[in-house]
Structures are given as structure tokens and as C-alpha cells.
Amino acid sequence: MTTAAGYNTRTAGSFRQRFDTAVNARNSLLCLGLDPDPNRIPVGVSVEDFLIGIIEATSDLVCAYKPNTAFFEQLGDDGWRILREVINHVPDETPVLLDAKRGDVGHTAAAYAAALFDWAGADAVTLNPYLGFDALEPFLSYEDRHIFILCRTSNPSAGDLQDLMVGDVRVYEQVAKLSRDWNERGNVGLVVGATYPDEVARVRAICPDQLMLLPGIGAQQADIHVAVSSALDATGGNILVNASRSILYAQPVENGCAVGGWAETARNAAQELRDAINEAR
User: Fold this and answer.
1) Which residue, 44, 171, 255, 259, shows the most beta carbons closer than 10 Å to its own?
2) Which of these is catalytic: 40, 89, 101, 225?
């Protein structure tokens, strides 16, 4: 729901509380990305109805939802409205991690934080740490929210910068070390690509207690068993394994029309992946 001023009020309660509740209630470490591609959504189904249908079909199988702002921004003014409506349809006990990858000077970062946390209603957000701590602090001041900073990303060219040496450590290892210092409020996590399990293991060794978001499962074809076992903490958890396209668009589409029930097929794909993650624990 929203206030008269248009601000989202869903965000009462902390990201960590919602995450722990969802993990335990659903026996799930699956984070489902919500990346609407109009070219892959069945003809006659709106973006909003498609995403709400996906949420309704999978809400008992996931530990979090991760809308990617870029896929909503491409839709213009209507995209921002759809984003907030989609967030409002996520069950209150399920956290929303907004994949926005923001990172700017302090006063601009404060405006981003207000937009993503207060207006959109996100419980967590992905951030770029390139500008340093003062660009993260406005987000960290929301003590009940979480940030996930880009550390070692899943894309093929990630190593162009992230593997460069800083003294005797790589850039991504230095980011992981800095994240420990920035985690005074216990609300700093890391984005580490499942496509690079050796790097995942190094980051886990540096940050044994922090949450880790693992993109790269599914369409990017990371080895789920290797990635999960590399990322788990000493308790056998503290990770969110993200998949998007492999679940959202699991149903074949012919001539713009989904073959069969797209929501049911997405649910089946989500359940299969959730179970595979649990088998890898």
C-alpha cells in the first residue's frame, strides 16, 4: 500500500527479518529476478499481469524477489508505476531486493536511497562501490535495509577491472575486505557471480558472515553445485541464489504465444531450482 503522498509503506520491518522468515518457512535460498522483457512475454498479457502472475505462482518457493530497475525504466513513466505495483504485490513476509546498481556522490546517493527505499519500497538494493564509502553511507543509514555491493560480478569481462592487483590482492578481494569495515550495522552484503566459483570461495573466506547474492545460475549456466558449496557460510546458508530468465521464460513461446500455462511452468522451474540448491547445500 502507499500513503497519500505516494510513498510505499510496505517496508515496515527489516530485510534480514523478512529474509530469515522466508528462508525458514520455504526451505529456500532461491531469489527470483523479475526482469520483464516485452518481447518474451506472451501476446495479450501485460507486463504488470505477467509479473504479478509469476509472483503468485512462486511466492511459496522463494526467499526474495529481485526486480531489475533497467527493465522497468525502459518502459518510461509507466515502468515506474508498474515497478511499485509489482513490489506491492510481493507478500509482506518476502523481501524485495531492487537491482539498481546505483553509486554516486553523497547528496545524490541520498536522493537515490529515498527513491528506492521510501518511494519504491525496496528492502535491499544493489550498489556500485567504485566511489567509496560516502556514496554508500546514505543507504547504510537505513539500518533496517540491506545493501549488496558489486564485488566479483558474473559477466565475462568482469576480470578486466575486478582482477587487477592492488598491492598483493585483487580489486574484488579489496572490495570484500572493505565491506567488512562498512558492515558496522550488519547490513552489507556482496554480489559475487556464481560463474566464478573460485572467486566465490575467496570472497567467502574474507567475509565469513555476510550475505552473498549469487547471480549467474540459469541462463548464464553456472554449475549450481560448485557455486553453492563455495558460497555457503559455516551455518550452511547466508546466500541468495538468483535466477531470472530461466524461470520467467521457461515456457516456450511460438509466434508470440506461450505454449501452455506460463505461470505453472515458471513455478515448476522455480521448484526444480530451489530443490537443486538444497541438494547442493
Assistant:
1) 171
2) 101
